[in-house]
Design brief:
This protein is an alpha+beta fold. The chain is 32% helix and 28% strand.
Amino acid sequence: MATGAVSRWLRHPAALALLAGLAVLAAAFVPALWMMLTTPPHPAAQRDPAAPWALEPVPGGGIRVFGLHLPGATLADAQSAWGDDLQLALMASRGEPAMLEASVETARPGTVGGRLVFSAEAKAQDIERWRGHAAKEEPVSADTRRIALRADDRADALRTPIVGIGFIPAAQLDARTLRERFGAPAEVWRSTASVEHWLYPDRGLDVMLDEQGRELLQYVAPADFERRLRAPLVRATASPASGPPG
């Protein structure tokens, strides 16, 4: 289009109306675009609150992880979070008392898949009563049997408090990744030639790295860390690992 023609088109009433409309649109859009470019994302959008490394301290020496408070959460809370995926049963090994076990075999907290295991502190007399009512036991190994709970006993068992949570990632998480997520541990213990434990007492966390297997992340209330995680590890281990974790 020649210069003269452009000039005549710009003086046309329709062109003037179009340009005025575009000016109004720009005036409305530019401030919003500026805010999008200059405003940092909300902190909540920068992390996944359901991820295994999203640990939040709560008053009284507790933590919130996987949407559950330790201490305070029960297996019923875990069922509310995971629904029918939560498996509940008694596990009895030869020569040992039966224990209540709850797990989610294929969990996906945040963007990381894996297996969740909930440690619940059931009373010995309750476990014996539930086992006495059970109609079905099935072997899971040469020395261990899985005992299904009756419906009413299951409802009773769901009221049991959770004292610990274990998470086994489906994908391998190397030491560098775990260090980036959790930071440097307060203490490192080597329980076997291939297994190392990174301890975070203020977060109630034990990260177990196994050179020959999967990692295991264990969570307890920080107030229970010494009794439930560190003391058993120290009793079973000769000495702390030498040198910083890699």
